[in-house]
Amino acid sequence: MPLAVFVLGLSVFALGTSEFMITGLLPGMAADLHVSIPDAGLLISAFAVGMVVGAPLLAIGTLRLPRRRTLLALLAVFAVAHVVGALAEGYALLFATRVIAALACAGFWAVALATTIALVPVERRGRGMAVLVGGLTVANIAGVPAGTFLGQHAGWRTAFWAVTVVTLVAVAGVALLVPETTGGPLSVRGELRLYRRGRVWLALGVIALCQAMIFAAFSYLAPLLTETDGLAEGWVPGVLALFGVGALIGISAGGRLADRRPFATLYSCLALALAALLVLALTTDALVAVVAVLVFGIAAFGANPALNLRAFQAAGDAPTLVGASTTAAFNVGNTAGPWLGGVAIDAGLGFPSVAWTGIALGVATLATLTVAAAVQRSDDRELVAV
Predict the structure, then answer these.
(1) A Gene Ontology CC term for this entry (predicted)?
(2) Is this prediction's pTM over 0.85?
């Protein structure tokens, strides 16, 4: 595996830490900025919306630019946004920096995915994507807890400064170790033809539904474990870290399996995730629930490399825009899942309802994946006939 891919994974670690650490910093940020916690929570929504909108727009805007210089520019914008955010005295300015950081993050994801595809041999692309996305997994295991710890003991601004430092390390790594690549002779119009392909929309739909399945349940694991399964509140961070360990195991194995059999990998991971969700929906035993959380982490992130790989296979000759589209699809799922889980809770169905919501979304994912597999078989038969 090229060292450059690991450098890109380090960059994703910085981006992912910033994206998710806000959850643990909300009380301190709200108090410091004199806003309500729900208003502070909009900083999370702002980042998600910036990711969804920014990924395709920046992918198109940077299509003809050299990729390494584009990556460096986006990391620099991301770092500056955190410096300004750390110094911000008011909520409005901080909100603006989160949107700008999200746009830079979205653009970086799109270009980094395309760069990884260019640097890694075809037969190892699943593993390359596993390394890239592994940076996000490690962010959830180490970066987010560390950022939360810093915020709780030294103020939320310290966490922003820490992300800035890690981002600057990533800048140095990209500058020194990532070779320059380009998107080739394709034009914007050529890449936009991507959206005429039904199998691309199916691949993106599978991504969005799968992510919604994961985050419908994951977003409410803490109250589910404590209120339904009787887990002591002090154990919740450890269980969430266990989910992260499962995610790391899953993405490592999933990267290798996706290179050989992407559809089989997705079916297996979805089946395992649905089994874990069913246990979480039915059990009231804390130990059983904890084991299910570990399995859920393995299955949820084990699917990730195959999800990305399938999208790139479906896109064919539009690697930059498909990287942006997958980024947007993941974030659509990340946004829709918690909302749907919240709707179930607000309807008075109890915390186990988030697991049932995840199951419903998982079944929808399986159905969409089955259609995608049928379309793929049909396309393969047409190629053989020709």
Answers:
(1) plasma membrane
(2) no
